């Protein structure tokens, strides 16, 4: 065993001790905010390096045949790990045996001796195959399956966790790719598109890469095969709960996603808190008091019509909750916004099921929580005329097949939305302060969601943003409007990032230099399809290049 590798193992053991000591010291209650941020940044960097090292270790275990070590060698390894002195590390070099061994493969060794979960061990070996290389049956090394991604994996400038997750996704398509040159070409295209997404907008890359892989797996399957697998399946009872699996077509998923978005928005009929609270109480018997804080409720939501508490009044000394039978105060129910999104979605779904229940019993079914979901479908007219296999997508980024689109059009309420057109009087100038419904529909259809790169807030919960401030003489026009979620709307007006107006093009975003040292113009592609995301990234790169070359007259919007 070389002194260099023994020293590297000793350094690794020392690094583990240093990390434990540093973490203990940084638990200091007097830790400053700046040092807390440094703590987080350094830990994330260590986590990225740790993920890369785990895949390298899996590759090393398989390449060296570590599962063939004899028992004395394994005992020496365990002793060296517990006491990593140079002598113990030298003695841990070990001997492999050609006879019968306790472990059949590197994966079983990782699972049984290193206590790595089976699926995790399997994934790391696949990632090693894709990003480092493998070993053939004769023991000779093989090239990585994803050679281009392998270069990014070796580059410390990229997060190896995202690249490793991408490698797993792409590897899962290997049985769906055609044989021969056609399959190799399709794999290379997948790899190239994945790299573009990782390099340009890593926050949205996972979603788009998953969609790309899903398209490959579904590309050859006829609709009949898909319909044979859709449905609501009952898995059984686990930990006191009944589990179901729901498999739906993209067009059905779009309706579900739209309803989820409405349920999460208390300003919509589907998201009305009181109606949802009553809907859940019909199943649980729990009235759910405490979903809202009395001080923040609007007048119409107060059952007794009283005014909110006076902030300057003397504090109430009475307990807020009644003691239960055991004499302890009952915990107040969580506020609606504090509930898990999964629970809010279930409540909204159960409210829909209650509609028929109430109607059959003669009750009023026009209740909060029973609104029909609205789904926006955006068609690419040129792709449709060219006969492209996919030319429509929902506002949440779900792609539609032509058959699904035709079915949706038969049942849809059609709202004509012209993007970049001049046939509709959508601009109001100074005649009106707020955007009209027609303007809002056009803006939401065009921009899909929050403008901030990587933000996953759906369009239903975003706010229309004047890029030309009304109070400074700005107009209520389409070309000077953007969409922001409530958080990023405030952040833009606080100057934490800038919107950028570009003639004849959608607004883009310029992040501060500490978040984006390259100062690229950016578009949030989270709710786009992978094809749309790649096109949007190309557009942003072209606009950035023209801006830097002085060939593009842009306006960086002031807060």
Automatic annotation (TrEMBL):
TM ranges: none
Q: Which UniProt keywords apply?
A: Endonuclease, Hydrolase, Nuclease
Q: List each coiled-coil range.
A: none
Q: Where is the composition biased (Basic and acidic residues)?
A: 294-305
UniProt biased composition (Low complexity)? 324-335
* Molecular function per GO: endonuclease activity
Annotated region (Disordered), positions in chain: 175-194, 264-339
The annotated regions of Acidic residues compositional bias extend over 279-293, 313-323
Return the InterPro entries for the record: HNH_nuc (IPR003615)
Descriptive protein name: HNH endonuclease
* Organism of this sequence: Glutamicibacter mishrai
């Amino acid at each position: 065993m070389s002194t260099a590798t023994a020293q590297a193992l000793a350094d690794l053991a020392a690094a583990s001790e240093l990390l434990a000591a540093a973490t203990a010291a940084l638990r200091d209650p007097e830790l400053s905010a700046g040092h807390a941020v440094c703590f987080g940044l350094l830990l994330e960097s260590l986590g990225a390096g740790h993920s890369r090292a785990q895949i390298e270790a899996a590759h090393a275990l398989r390449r060296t045949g570590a599962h063939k070590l004899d028992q004395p060698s394994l005992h020496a390894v365990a002793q060296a790990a517990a006491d990593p002195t140079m002598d113990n590390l030298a003695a841990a070099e070990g001997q492999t045996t050609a006879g019968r061994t306790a472990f059949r493969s590197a994966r079983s060794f990782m699972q049984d001796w290193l206590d790595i979960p089976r699926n995790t061990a399997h994934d790391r070996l696949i990632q090693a195959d894709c990003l480092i290389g493998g070993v053939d049956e004769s023991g000779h090394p093989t090239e990585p399956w994803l050679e281009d991604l392998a270069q990014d994996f070796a580059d410390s400038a990229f997060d190896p966790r995202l690249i490793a997750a991408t490698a797993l996704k792409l590897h899962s398509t290997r049985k769906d790719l055609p044989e021969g040159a056609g399959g190799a070409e399709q794999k290379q295209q997948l790899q190239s598109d994945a790299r573009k997404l990782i390099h340009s907008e890593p926050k949205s890359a996972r979603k788009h890469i998953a969609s790309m892989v899903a398209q490959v797996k579904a590309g050859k399957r006829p609709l009949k095969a898909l319909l044979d697998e859709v449905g609501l399946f009952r898995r059984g009872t686990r930990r006191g709960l009944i589990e179901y699996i729901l498999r739906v077509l993209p067009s059905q998923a779009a309706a579900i996603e739209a309803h989820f978005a409405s349920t999460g928005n208390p300003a919509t009929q589907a998201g009305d808190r009181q109606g949802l609270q009553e809907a859940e109480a019909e199943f649980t018997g729990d009235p759910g008091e405490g979903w809202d804080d009395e001080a923040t409720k609007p007048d119409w939501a107060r059952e007794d019509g009283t005014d909110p508490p006076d902030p300057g009044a003397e504090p109430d000394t009475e307990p807020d909750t009644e003691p239960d039978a055991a004499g302890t105060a009952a915990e107040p129910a969580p506020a609606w916004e504090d509930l898990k999104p999964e629970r809010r979605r279930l409540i909204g779904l159960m409210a829909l099921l209650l509609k028929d229940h109430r109607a059959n019993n003669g009750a009023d079914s026009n209740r909060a929580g029973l609104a029909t979901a609205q789904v926006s479908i955006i068609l690419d007219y040129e792709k449709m005329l060219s006969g492209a296999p996919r030319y429509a997508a929902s506002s949440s980024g779900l792609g539609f097949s032509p058959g699904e689109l035709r079915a949706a059009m038969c049942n849809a309420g059609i709202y004509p939305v012209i993007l970049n057109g001049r046939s509709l009087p959508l601009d109001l100038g100074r005649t009106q302060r707020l955007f009209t419904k027609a303007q809002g529909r056009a803006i939401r259809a065009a921009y899909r969601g929050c403008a901030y790169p990587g933000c996953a807030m759906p369009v239903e919960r975003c706010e229309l943003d004047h890029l030309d401030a009304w109070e400074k003489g700005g107009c209520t026009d389409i070309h000077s409007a953007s969409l922001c979620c409530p958080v990023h709307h405030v952040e833009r007006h606080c100057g934490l990032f800038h919107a950028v107006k570009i003639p004849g093009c959608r607004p883009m975003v310029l992040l501060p230099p500490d978040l984006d040292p390259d100062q690229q113009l950016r578009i949030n592609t989270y709710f786009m399809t992978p094809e749309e995301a790649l096109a949007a990234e190309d557009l942003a790169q072209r606009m950035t290049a023209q801006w830097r070359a002085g060939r593009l007259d842009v306006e960086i919007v002031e807060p």
